[in-house]
Amino acid sequence: MSALAQSTVEHLAAPAVPALIQSVDWLAIAPPVIAAVTALAVLVTDLFLPERRKPLLGRLSVAGLAAAALMLLPLLDGDRATFCLTGSTRACSYTADRFTVVIQFLVLGGALLAALLSVTAVKDDRRRVPAGEFWFLLLSSAAGAALLPASRDLATLIVALEVASLPAFALVGIRHGEARSAEAALKFFLSSVTATAVSLMGVSFVYAATGTLHLTEIARRLPQTDGQLHTLVQTGVVLTLIGFAFKTAAVPFHFWVPETYVGAPLPVAAYLSVVGKAVGFSGLILVTVIAFPSYAGIWGPALAVLAALTMTAGNAGALRQSATRAYSAVRLLAWSSVGQAGYLLVPIAAAGYTGGGEKAIGSTVAYALMYAAVNLGAFAVAALVGRTKGLNRISDYRGLYATNPVTAVLLAFFLLCLAGLPPGVIGLFAKVTVFSAAVDAGLGWLAVLMAVNVVIALYYYLRWTSLLFRAPEGEPVRHRVPAPLTVALALTGAVGVVLSGAPELVLRFASTTLF
What we know:
Layout (H helix, E strand, L loop, with lengths): L2 H11 L16 H19 L6 H16 L9 E5 L7 E5 L1 H27 L6 H17 L6 H19 L6 H32 L4 H7 L8 H18 L9 H7 L2 H26 L4 H24 L8 H27 L3 H29 L13 H4 L1 H15 L5 H16 L3 H25 L14 H19 L2 H8 L4
Helix pairs in contact: 2-3, 2-5, 3-4, 3-5, 4-5, 4-11, 4-14, 4-19, 5-6, 5-11, 6-7, 6-11, 7-9, 7-10, 8-11, 9-11, 10-13, 11-13, 11-14, 12-13, 12-18, 13-14, 13-17, 13-18, 14-16, 14-17, 14-19, 14-20, 16-17, 16-18, 17-18, 17-19
């Protein structure tokens, strides 16, 4: 037999190479796919719509986000996975478990509420904000944000992070001819790109040491890495976390937040404050708890220090806001979001000390759900006042109760939830769960510092709340509430009230979401 024939026979006799990819589970990937398809539909439809019919794009976008959120209901039954490797070990790139579904609900619900706020904002500012581009960018970012919590390999995780982030840069600077908006977008872009580059270097180090990108495989192989690679792995872990720390607005990666929120359209600022944070925190949870549990001795203390610095810097920045300064209301909400990020970091840091971390991560998810609802509600009121008071100062809210009593009561309720005071019981309950996670992990010093920061935050939240019920200065301005803003306020208010009546539902739901 010739050498060629013998080689052919041996090749045919060799066992077949196993398929690398399984069939696609379309139901599992439906939420991000629907958001992405709606984005493309909006972009194409915009080409054929006359200017007077552009508001249809907003309705189509809201409908698409609502449909994507509804597709989460069939996923509540159990875990689903797709894009999996087959062979001796089964690792998947996309997993729709309970954690994924809850974070996708938060992301798509937050994007839906931001879209409701945007319907009015785009209509009011239609000369400077192109409707087609705006809705395409918002939906594209929401699709990336919905993909991220389901990602179970570092490549998909980074891609999802950038798909969520890149359209956000454009949304911040979308107003034509406004220097402040362009400057904010540039700062946001440059700082985010730097953080992403650092994070990609960390991913390359981890891949070099383990030979895999799948999170579960990384967790299995990291303890087995050669001692000579120990420094490389440690560096990779730290650098990978930096990119996600930036997305969470953790100190010292927080400096872009106030200028970006002020320069962006208010609905975009609301979107970044909730959906942007959900993206950062879900990514941080995945890489720490799933991929790097064996290095908890590194990321646990690091996140504890970041949490302490972040909550302190955020509350100090909010405390310094003058009521008469231009855009002080938006700046206060921006610094407040930095402080709240510090609280959200506490349970993740605690997970590094307790091992399993399911209860601790459940506290972060519960706090994030509370924060998303009430913070979007506060931004909805800010968007309403901003329609008549362009500078959006805290002093512009003086006497709001005299002209818009329902709106004033809702804003007071949202601020009290953020402060953790009754009747905002859900805010108090969320802070207690975070505080408990720190104590259970033996982080007494962090729990004490958190308590001090909560007391500091009471001052600026209550100062703003008291202005709402004072006698107005000058001629009162009555704010007409458009229908989309009314829906957004009603939804956020209803969620806040229901959860304050039964706060244990949030923790019970969040604590059953993990992996």
